[in-house]
# Entry
Amino acid sequence: MKGYFERAKVKSKVGAEEVPIFEPSFIIDCAVFETISTTTSKRKIEYDKFAQDTLHEVRKLNRDVKSLSEEMNVKLASHDFEQDYMLYRVQNIFAASSLISVRLNAFDFVTNPGLVTTGSRIQFFPYRKFEKSVHCLNNRSQQKQVAVRLEGRSYFSFEAFQLLDLLPYILLENALKYSPQGNAIVVKFDEDKGSVENVGPWVEPNECLKVFERSVRGKHVTTAEGGSGIGLYVVRELCSIHGIKIMATTPDSPAFHLNGVPYASFKIHLDFSQAHAKDS
# Structure
């Protein structure tokens, strides 16, 4: 409107009865359009970053699969191998392949959340899924020198959509990403309750809800850890779709400082007691 209805022009060239009148709905529509445009721009930046991170990780995992496969081919051709060694390498290949699937499924979910409820349903055993995820992430945890302990046991299960397989992987990868060398990640189970606890950059108590929002990370997280702030958002959405209660707890003050960054325990609590695959 600027340039057409400036106050000076209105005063000098038109009478009061000719001053244009805009309906309140028009003004609101303009404000909404501006908000949508800004949000769309931010989402595009977020999407591009997430796509780049996914592509980078998939390429890295694919290199691992290729390298391990070539190593096994050489060993098999020379007949110079031990069965235990080959079994270990096969497990490594399976782990890398599983993580590629996780990356691609997470990408599909973020770009099209509706895919969850259109997928097949499975009988989901939380303890077994976490146990499998621990094995698949074994190489990474050893490389980072971060132990992953699985405590307790559970035979509890419920019907879930296939994409819920992402839940344990994302939570454990998130814990591995932020845990400093020499620390441990503890996964605990007691029938229909579970938890994942690790030490990482201190998440202040007032951030415990915010970290589940899209593209939000704790203020003490540095750029060195990487990531796009999407992981816990995906976890929250998957839990919501399945009726799983999830919450995060953290202490009121940090336990120590490392390179100027405050560190403390961070614990995710999971309640599967009311879990089921909700109909869309």
Observations:
- The longest helix spans residues 24-78.
- Residues 179 and 201 are 8 Å apart (CA to CA).
- Strands lie at 121-124, 147-153, 158-161, 184-190, 193-201, 245-249, 256-258, 261-271.
- The helical segments are 7-13, 24-78, 83-111, 115-118, 126-136, 138-144, 166-178, 231-242.
